[in-house]
Amino acid sequence: MSKSDKKLTRADIYQLKTLILPAFVVILTSISFTALIWLGLSQDQTSQFINSHDSKERSLFAINYPANGPFQAELTDLKSQNILKKADEIEIQRSILAATDYLDIPPSLLWCLLFQESRLNHLDGIESDKASSGLGQFSRFSFFEINHQLERYSPNVSNLIFLTFGRDIRPIAAKRGDLVSLSSYYSIPTAVTASAIYLHNRYFQLSQLLEKKGISYRSDILWLFAMMAYNKGSRSVLSFWNTIYRKNGPEYFSELLNNYDFFRSNTEDTVLLTKSLNKIWEEAKAKSYARELRIHTKNITSCAVSPMFQTTRSLTEVTP
Amino acid sequence: MRTSPGRSISIFLILTLSFLFYIYRFKPKAIFNDTALTDSYQMLMRSISSGGHVKFQENKQALKSRIASVLKNPKNEDEENHAVNIALYLFPEILPDTNFEKELAIELWGTFENAIEKRPRTSEARMKFEEMKSNIWNYENPRLTNVGLSFHAEETLKLYHELSLP
């Protein structure tokens, strides 16, 4: 190698230095930005992890519903006989997804509740003098709560009405003569929204009560209790809680609110349900109400809860 | 065909015993046996008609003391249950904190009862009564099934219906 070559190399190195320094700065800046973005993302991922803990809890509910065979067969029959029209089914499903997304309700639970209440017949009771009617079997007292008492529950509940309909459509009632009115409970979006709010209010009542007492609970199990309260009143649920708490103590009670197997075995116990309802009604009424409550709870739970949780066998037993 | 007297007596005895067993097994069981306590609502209703809301409040206060002492030392489960139900609908604040119904009872009708008692027989009291009635139905039997309301809820609503009539 000659001297001139060496000089050239030095010149090159000098030139390279002038180039390398800004390039190095650019690279460092890029790395810093990348690091900042990565840190920012990883913070999001942390919160996603916390949420995923919540969504992990939610996984108790089925993604595809109805999850139980009898309801699937019944739904197929309703559709094949055109008792449940395709357009109505789609409108019900759309309204359920909108309302449940806003109120954080498991969609399968609301769908199964409405199926149990009315078999998705939004005109149920329109030609009779039944005390309750429509998709969610609303009575005049359920309407009273939606029309006059929403401020008592979480403040953004009434916002759902504005968001869904663009205005306040209340007072809502079972208007037989004006089916197309958005204020009629026979209108599908109105019935689904009002029913979702009523279910949410039951959950709100129960969760507030437990939080004030500092009792922890699994949210999806509390949604199942809210479903029971929707149909048979919060009193039935609270009397049931009182009976279990007194009989078995706080640890067992905590399991009831956090362990699905405890929930299932206790709500299927007709003797226990009758005993707790007998504190409210005389024996014959308590028995009949307890039977209804047990069937109602079992039907909706088997429809809404993922089949994974419905086996009575343990995982080790079902693993091949 | 002739039957012997012994056989007739046996059949008679079997039928009588079957009948008595049926009556015993399927008789409608009242939840409560203490008539003094079950008469509480009638006593309060009489006090409204005889002495108005002032007399009602006096008697309600006396009943509250009595129920509080029963809750502290109940004779049996029936008596305790009845006292809990009266307290739940008329003075929920005396229920033990461990009772899951206490908080909602204060919120859903306790405050409304106080408001009606403060301004009885006014249109404001009537509005409070309507709200309280709706709360109680939604709390006990939202679908309005044949089961209806409990005895205590019904009797309480009768009292406050009367007190809130303008």
- Mean pLDDT of chain B equals 89
Uncertain residue ranges of chain B: 27-33
Strand content of the residues of chain A, in percent? under 5%
Helix coverage percent of chain B: over 70%
CA-based gyration radius of chain A: 29 Å
Distance between the first and last residues' Cα of chain B: 75 Å
The shape of chain B, in one word, is elongated
Cα radius of gyration of chain B in angstroms: 22 Å
Structure classification of chain A: mainly alpha
Largest interface: A-B, 36 and 30 residues
Mean pLDDT of chain A: 87
Elements of chain A, N to C (H/E): HHHHHHHHHHHH
**Helix proportion of residues of chain A, in percent?**
55-70%
Q: Mind describing the biggest β-sheet of chain A?
A: none
Encode the helix/strand succession of chain B as letters: HHHHHHH
Structural class of chain B: mainly alpha
Number of separate structural domains of chain A: 2
The first-to-last residue Cα distance of chain A is 74 Å
Q: List how many beta strands of chain A DSSP finds.
A: 0
Biggest β-sheet strands, sense, barrel of chain B = none
Give the helix/strand layout:
The complex is a heterodimer of chains A (320) and B (166).
Chain A (H helix, E strand, L loop, with lengths): L2 H56 L10 H12 L5 H18 L3 H12 L21 H9 L8 H9 L22 H25 L6 H40 L1 H8 L2 H8 L5 H22 L10 H4 L2
Chain B lengths: L4 H22 L8 H4 L1 H33 L4 H14 L11 H17 L4 H18 L10 H14 L2
Helix pairs in contact in B: 3-4, 3-7, 5-6, 6-7
